[in-house]
Amino acid sequence: MPSPETKNNFSAIRDKILAQSGKEYWRSVEEFVDAPEFEEFVAREYPHEIEEWDNSLSRRNFVKVMGASLALAGLSGCVIQPAEKIVPYVKNPEGMLPGKPNFFATAMSLGGVSVGLLAKSYEGRPIKIEGNPDHPGSQGAPT
Q: What pTM value is reported for the model?
């Protein structure tokens, strides 16, 4: 929560920006970096970092760094993964036949209220979830 002093500093900077009239439009907040209100705000909010204010990263250098990091991120996605073997079930789970869907009723909490759902799943993966028409909370409405 901002302190009253912070609000006063921001209101002073806002008043200075809005006091300009005519064709003296402000372009960015950077114009007011040298304002005494801003320096006072920075000194109050970040007292140990006021001497370390460093703005040496130019736009060009920033784009270079970001381009290099994106290129390296792209290269890391091109790694060939080792082959994995797919192993079938040793013991098939009860009530599951390959290629046949399972239907079951479940519930979901929505805003602190339970909503009844019907779910369709193939081999343990839910494919379709819709409102349960027999549940008084959803009455078949899609969720």
A: 0.35
